[in-house]
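This section describes the prediction task in plain terms. A model, or a person checking by hand, is given the sequence of a single protein chain and must write out its three-dimensional structure as a string of tokens. No templates, partner chains or ligands are provided. The sample shown here is typical of the held-out split.
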Amino acid sequence: MPGTAHTPRGDQRLIVTAKPLKSLIVEGWRFLPHSYSVVHQWQVLSLSRMGSIALKIRDMPLYHPGWRTNPGLFEETDEETLRSLESAAAGEYADATFRIFYPFDFSPSRCGKTAVFGTSENQIIQRIQLSDEGIYQQLRRKSPPRDVTVVTPSRWSAEGFYKCGFTTEQVVVVPHGVDPATFHAATDHLVRARIRAKLPVASDAFVFLSVGAMTGNKGIDVLLRAFAEVCGQRPEARLVLKGTDSLYNSKGFLRAQMDELTTAEQYRVRDRLIYFGGSFPHRIMAMLYQAADVYVSPYRAEGFNVPVLEAAASGLPVICTRGGATEDFVTDEFARKIDSTRVAVNVEDQDGVRLEPNIEDLSALMSSAMEDHSWRSRAAAAGPVHVRAHYTWDLVVQTLVHALLE
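The expected answer:
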């Protein structure tokens, strides 16, 4: 009988029946530095390693006409795997379809199950986030589609979908992950010194790092003001910022926020600020984490905040906002939290929320981190252990597969 392995007659205890493969179609973007695309690609790489999944993909139109694909973010072997993934035909059936692109498409697929990835940074769903006006009106009436599962990466983000009427059974929280072969602590001090020299920063400089689009939800204005205070007392402090100019006007956002500083603050910050706006391969991003001393994220609203997790995996102590999405995955062993206040926001007559991190507390935490070598050493050891135990892509994708196919 096909799928059955027989043992010699008389010993029926060892008969094993092979389980049929589960089929999955994943719709998303490849070869793009957008966060949804990066997550999609790490996920399908992990899915492709699972022998129990018959995986096919469907490339979706890019959100903005000015966006261009950018191969080379992953290692060549992973890029080859991504290029070689089998495409799903139009109308093809599978046990489940999983969509991870923007805007969200909640229309039912022809598959057994339809799941849509989405984030709700301010705990509301806006019209711009949806592909269909009718679905938006349904959500405003708190009457979402009942035959669709929402996958979101944090409990904070899940609240936005609950507010729209999705049930707790419909919303599955699946965190993002890290590839520890790429993002890990530097083991060779000479290699780290060479990376820092290329930034360039002096050997005795203390480097704070923050990665993001430089948009208002990232809290870069808060970081700039706090850093201006810190480097007024500690001139060896440096701030490295990494934006994404190919997708967002990151450099323009940063320039506008710099202009909001006082003349004295601008003077202190400019000579100690290094900005990168290019799309770096993951291996170069890993080196950037390794070159820094502390990672700082005074965010106002995030769906997850992958750079915080990557920083922890890379042995970087973390300073991040208290009370938001990062509460799901940071611990006091490697992260210190900025006091924040919940602030109501109203968008499209919806009641959302964001956090306002306290500038004075952030400044104090940054100064304390510079002085507390013992904490930094403990955090550098604890972060990678925590991430490897709970947040590798292979681990979190198992949770995703369970939600989609079991």
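For orientation: DSSP finds 13 helices and 16 strands in the chain.
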